[in-house]
Amino acid sequence: MVTEQELKSLIEQVMKDMGVNEKDNFKKEQVLEKVLNKNQYDDENIVDITAIDLKKQLLVEKPENKDAYLKLKESTPARVGISRAGARYKTETLLRFRADHAVAMDAVFTYVSDEFLKEWGLLSVNTKCEDKDEYLTRPDLGRKFDQETIELLKEKCDMNSQVQIYISDGLSSTAIETNAKDTYDAIVQGLNNYGIKVGKPFFVKHGRVPAMDAIGEALNPEVVVVLIGERPGLATGESMSCYMAYRPTVGMPESNRTVISNIHKGGTPSVEAGAHIADVIKAILEQKASGLNLKL
Amino acid sequence: MFLDGKGAKKYGKNPYFLAPFLNLKGEDYMKEDILSVGIDIGTSTTQLVFSNITIENRASIVSVPMISIVDKKVIYRSEIYFTPLLSVTEIDAITIRKIIEKEYEKAGIKPEDVDTGAVIITGETARKKNASEVLKSLSGFAGEFVVATAGPDLEGIIAGKGAGVSEFSKEKGVIVANLDIGGGTTNISVFKNGDVIDTACLDIGGRLIKINQKSKEITYISEKMERLVEKLGLNISIGSKVDKNELKKITNIMVDVLEEVVGIKEPSEELELLITNHDLRRDYEIEYISFTGGVADCISNQPENWFQFEDIGFLLGKGIRDSKLTEKKSIFKPDETIRATVVGAGSHTTDISGSTIDVSQDILPMKNVPILKLTEEEENINFNKIDKIIANKLKWFRLENDKQLVALAIKGLRSGSFKYIQDISKLIIKGMEEIINSDDPLIVIVENDMAKVLGQTLKTQLNNNKDIVCIDSIKVSDGDYIDIGKPLAEGKVVPVIIKTLLFNN
């Protein structure tokens, strides 16, 4: 994004090149006002191409049987039936591809907003990662906490609860903002129905999945559950996973984790996933096992 | 590990899983067989089939289960019997029962082994006096979970599915009309891309007029045929000697009407006369036609004796072969002809619910539960008033029915918020107050995937004091009936049979 200052100097440069007097502040202000006045842009009628449902869009011209093609497309979000221009994609397909890629990038690089955490009243803690770059390049740090943070969790959160659920950005903050609250509420309702007690939730920034092991060791619940953003793809940036483990410990095998993935509006709806997860957690508690040791 | 590529497509974007798509213990994904029976008591023939319906969890271990029907196989076909009748209007229930008993024995299957299925009394026979009595005696015998009735529309759909017409239309992406021409009626179902888009039923069949082979006399004329004979001034009456040319005039009219109903000719008065319940809409172009039912076999076979079966089936078949039906439309040769309905009844009536549902223990199965469906308009525009709408519908329903059980059907949202679920649950409870206060379970059927969370919410709001059946991924219409079977796959799904009595778009 160009800052206002950069824009100003750019305009000055252009005006200078056009021979307008550098000192002519009035004219300069006039131009600047016009450029900066957003109302001047008419983007009302520009279609948001990411809003088009790819499953319902057929770009093939004169298809032999449009209905049958669309019926097939219902079963996949893949980019089929997009036609071509010579050996290349059509402009619309190319733009959509780049737009979807941008959505994925945004999902990774944005943070879960403070308003979201405040509204939910979640305590937010950080792993050992300082920023997104470190988070992406040092997976080992995304599963560890400072001693200070561990102490804070011990002080502010519930110790020894039956189930400890927490939320983590993972690789998609968008997924968390879109799904986490609904899924969480549905899980808690389901667990309450079974008379299972849930510890106070919190938020972990820059979190990798195995951070749940450190959480488990710190707070000592029976089951640790994390709702975490999945790495976005080109089909959706909103997909969330739920990982569960029975008494996880740092360094335990990955096969001890149970996971429900693909939670988003095009996959398993967030609330329905939550209701299902409640049942899975109940089974974990009953069998005192998770991952491949759990029989569902 | 990406051996079959199936999982890779679906979960390739998940960062934490490289390849958990195979069950690491080397087990197959869960498979379960359901044994289904189909019994068809038609105007002329009675048949039975047993089918294996296989369900399987197709989701990988990292997903919410997704159980679906993966295979349907007919494992036993009975002989084809002439339907035993006591008189022209009465089915011989005792003989039917004996036939069925014998076939169970031959197949080596006990009634208690049967999980699901359908007994269907089709065609003219359904209108006969003791049909419901016959069904009753068979229902108990044919397994715990069996449908008892079907209207002409459902029969047509069942025949079309049993004949593979639905599959064909889906594979080819075409519109196909299946004409199931039996002894008493012709049930028509029209499929587009695998879905039923229209149905109709006509009083056209091979045994609407019967002939005694020995005496060459006419022994039976159906009521509609009497009217047709009168209208055309033909020399056909009970006791009169058979005259092939006179009978041909009748079958020619039948063929004309078939041409009319599929849109080759303009509709005539005769079409009007021969309609059993309603006509096709014909606001689409039928590309393929297929023929099933007993008469279908008379189309291609040249008889030695035209009245070999003591009826007009062969004459009608010949008429169809020489008609514009085979000339103007492409013909699809179905997988089944005379057995289409019974195979459909055995293999294609049972469906399964979505895989995340909520059902109280030990309250299933349930049979013939009428559906109260909210329209989409009622759900979307008047959302805050749906409690009143539900209560009103329920009151109305009570006035017209003495049945106690009733299922509320809604579409629901594709991906509703937790608040939406709370709200709709409250409104449902308010609207269904009468049911809540009774001993009957609260049954809610949702089209979108939200039954588990809705079920849990209903339970929470009712303090776990009420039996609940909340299932999803099922599309029903107002006026349908539903059978819900005992849970399968460790309670993850329930089998359902939806009985559409009225088919209107």
From TrEMBL, chain A:
E.C. code: 4.3.1.7
GO molecular function: cobalamin binding; ethanolamine ammonia-lyase activity
Reactions this protein catalyses: ethanolamine = acetaldehyde + NH4(+)
Cofactor remark: Binds between the large and small subunits.
GO biological process terms on file: amino acid metabolic process; ethanolamine catabolic process
Keyword Membrane: no
A Pfam family hit: EutC
Chief location category: other
Broadest EC class assigned to this enzyme: lyase
Cofactor: adenosylcob(III)alamin
Transmembrane stretches, start-end: none
Location(s) in or outside the cell: Bacterial microcompartment
Residues annotated for adenosylcob(III)alamin binding in this entry: 209, 230
Known partners and oligomeric status: The basic unit is a heterodimer which dimerizes to form tetramers. The heterotetramers trimerize; 6 large subunits form a core ring with 6 small subunits projecting outwards.
Role this protein plays: Catalyzes the deamination of various vicinal amino-alcohols to oxo compounds. Allows this organism to utilize ethanolamine as the sole source of nitrogen and carbon in the presence of external vitamin B12.
PANTHER family in the cross-refs: ETHANOLAMINE AMMONIA-LYASE LIGHT CHAIN (PTHR39330), ETHANOLAMINE AMMONIA-LYASE SMALL SUBUNIT (PTHR39330:SF1)
Family: Belongs to the EutC family.
Protein known as: Ethanolamine ammonia-lyase small subunit
